[in-house]
Amino acid sequence: PRFAAALREHPERELASLTMGLRLSEAGDLLAELRLVLAPGGQLARHTAGLGKGSGPTFRGIADAPFALAFGMAVPEPWANSMAAAAQEEAQKATPGSQAELQGLLHQLRGFGFAVRGPKPGAPMASGLSFALTVTDAQAFLTHAAALAALPGKDGQPGARIEQAHFEGRPLVKFTTVPPEKKPEESAAPSIVPPPEMLFGSREVKSALLAADDHTVIAGFGEPGEAFTAALASLASGGLARLPRLQRTQSLLGEGQALLYL
């Protein structure tokens, strides 16, 4: 948040130049490009110095199935360490005592991806979301995530209920949270965010993390079932990463471009 504020309040101190463009490749692909040159001495320049380049998108653990949108990003170790350092102060403001657990999560992150799919008829909207994380130690990641989620919020909101289990022989952590009731003035105001019942099927928000292998964590909403089984199968088959159109799009990325939208 503080870096967004710095850009919003003093863009001349943070950016030396910003260039946006579109170009048509010889093969007929429309490529959108954005280039930022950070101003020396700005917060963003100091924060990103020496971070290096991303290695490209990652879709490990995302099942090969029809989707509306997919996103993947590799996270080099210096990036993860930088995110952990930046999050420390914000975490303390939001949830006292959470810095160690949040840093334990972010230091381990090496990549993530997600896919947005249409939910099955009658299923809540969130059931169409699939997530996968590449980490250094999946079991340790689950331990940090459970400890972080169980912490009470600064406003007295209770932490999540945690259940340790297994799914197809692999460690699983289930989380159950109940969003706070809206205040009368908040309920009266129009909102574009659907109610929890529409998003998650009930007032309770259920989610789960699965240590799929030593370095992959699969995440999703609701009870783990077919979606997790398909995600586990994708570890051997290649999942989304094997799709020809994804491989073609990835080949169009320039050096150091770590983001991919489909």
Description:
The structure is a single chain. The chain is of the alpha+beta class. Helices cover 34% and strands 28% of the residues. The protein has an eight-stranded antiparallel β-sheet, with helices on both faces. The protein starts with a helix and ends with a strand. 26% of the residues are buried. Mean pLDDT is 78; it is low at 255-262.
Instruction: Please list the strands of the largest sheet in the order they lie side by side.
Output: 6-7-8-9-5-4-3-10
What structural class do helix, strand and pairing data support?
alpha+beta
Order of helices and strands: HHEEHEHHEEHEEHHEEHHE
Query: How many E strands?
Result: 10
Multimeric status of the protein: single chain
Helix content: 25-40%
Main beta sheet: 8 strands, antiparallel
Shape, per Cα inertia axes: globular
| Average pLDDT level | 78
Unreliable stretches covering 5 or more consecutive residues: 255-262
From the N-terminal CA to the C-terminal CA, the straight-line distance is 27 Å
Computed Rg: 20 Å
**Beta fraction of the residues?**
25-35%
Number of helices: 10
Write the layout of secondary structure elements.
Elements: H1 2-9, H2 11-14, E1 15-24, E2 30-38, H3 43-48, E3 69-74, H4 77-94, H5 99-108, E4 109-116, E5 129-135, H6 138-150, E6 161-167, E7 170-177, H7 184-188, H8 196-200, E8 205-213, E9 216-221, H9 226-237, H10 244-251, E10 259-261
Antiparallel strand pairs: 1-2, 3-4, 3-10, 4-5, 5-9, 6-7, 7-8, 8-9
